[in-house]
Amino acid sequence: MASRFTACIVAAGRGERAGGSEPKQFRPLAGKPMLRWSVETFSQHRDCAEIVIACAPDQVARVEDMTQGLACPVRVVPGGTSRTASVRAAIEIADAPHVLIHDAARPGVTPALIDRLLAALEDAPGAVPVLPVADALTREDESGLVPVSRDGLMRLQTPQAFERARLTEAFTRAGEVSYPDESALARATGLPVATVPGEERNFKVTWPEDFERMASLLQPDHSGLTVSGSGYDVHRLAPGDGLTLCGVFIDCPLRLIGHSDADAGLHAITDALLGASGQGDIGQHFPPTDARWKDADSADFLRHALGLAREAGASLVHVDVTLICERPRIGPFRDAMRTRVASIMDLAPQRVNIKATTTEKLGFTGRGEGLAAEAIVTVRVH
Q: In the prediction, which pLDDT does 223 show?
């Protein structure tokens, strides 16, 4: 087999045809961000030395966060304004003798396809996966529809595999010219490329309806056990200049007392997620006696719990939070809280629910001495 490779994943596009309010590679797909699917497949391959992800400059921190806890090293670089520029940025820092360049919008890549590409590199400096064209083809001109022969036509996929040195040389020879993919660059610069059979499940997610189709392929029978975990947290209130709840700052004459930022909402969610994935409780991971967590951002606690859940094979399904307090008023901040929790957990906003209630002036919350939060997190464990 070919020697070890660097997986270079291009994730800098906007994906506008797929709809949604954010780039498609970050949208949830079958319980995790789309990008995470292909990253995990590469990281678990025996010959993958590292993964380099090229993304939009303003998304570098986000990608670094969502690729924690993998089986091989991951580096993130700012991509360019074109695919060619992004690929160039990725291979410039690649270390392995071979590179496999892949689109983040193809989460269905399989180890078997990777193996075929690596085998082809034993006899050629480049290899790409292809599929036959099954549908009848036509083009339209001023006279109407004109049939197009399918003879010799193929559908190109990624990953596209190359000897790193030869591909780097091809980029140098091409100068500043952009190409639709690396096979086009190879042809333009005289670099031989072999073909291997592609896979239908490795299609490119392009349109809104493609998300459901891909989810059915990634989890064909929706197998796995659905599990829920519960969390509960309480913090005292005191006079102050504002507090943070469910990741959102509320400007009010109160503050929450605690070792960290005392965000009871995020603490309850963190505990619920740890419970659903069988990973203990928040006190075990972030003890209040540890000075490292003094005034810490509770979003970091939740991200840590999310990484542990993924390592345990748990995919997020839904989050439901109830905030219990007489003050501050939660209603004006409910939508912002929902958006913030969804962002931290890489969930669609409709998979997050925030509720608020009072205790009708009864108990410590009724007296305004503190507030409480309850959370239920549902996951699918595979």
A: 53
In sequence order, which residues have a C-beta less than 8 Å from that of residue 311 and are 6 or more positions away? 69
Contacts of 315 (CB under 8 A, 6+ apart): 30, 31, 32, 224, 379, 380, 381, 382
- Average pLDDT taken over every residue of the chain: 90
In 3D space, the residue among 35, 169, 51 whose CA is nearest the CA of residue 114 turns out to be 51
Asked whether the beta carbons of 48 and 7 are under 8 A apart, the reply is yes
Q: Indicate whether 259 pLDDT > 90.
A: no
Name beta bridge partners: 163: 98
Length of the chain in residues, anyone? Answer: 382
Backbone angles phi, psi at 239, to 5 degrees: -60, 140
- Give residue-wise pLDDT tens across range 311-328: 777 888 899 999 999 999
Cα four-point dihedral sign 172, 177, 182, 187 = negative
Q: How many secondary structure helices (H) and strands (E) does the chain include?
A: 12, 19
* Tokens at 54, concatenated: 């090229």
What residue type is 117 in one-letter code?
A: L
The closest of 372, 363, 367, 264 to 324, measured between CA atoms, is 372
Q: Is the pLDDT at 253 greater than 80, yes or no?
A: yes
pLDDT at residue 220 in the model: 61
Look at residues 251, 157, 141 and name the one whose alpha carbon lies nearest to residue 201.
157
**96 token code pair:** 């392995």
Contact 254, 235 (CB under 8 A): no
Cβ pair 99, 5 in contact under 8 A: yes
Calpha distance 80→52 (Å, rounded)? 14
Question: Considering the chain, what percentage of its residues have pLDDT values greater than 70?
Answer: 96
Q: Hey, which bits of 164-210 come out as E strands?
A: 194-197
- Segment 94-153, tens digit of pLDDT: 999 999 999 999 999 999 999 999 999 999 999 999 999 888 889 888 888 988 888 889
Q: Residue 241, exposed/middle/buried by CB under 10 A (0-12, 13-18, 19+)?
A: exposed
Separation between Cα atoms, residue 92 and residue 187, nearest integer Å: 21
Cβ atoms within 10 Å of 263's Cβ, excluding its own: 28
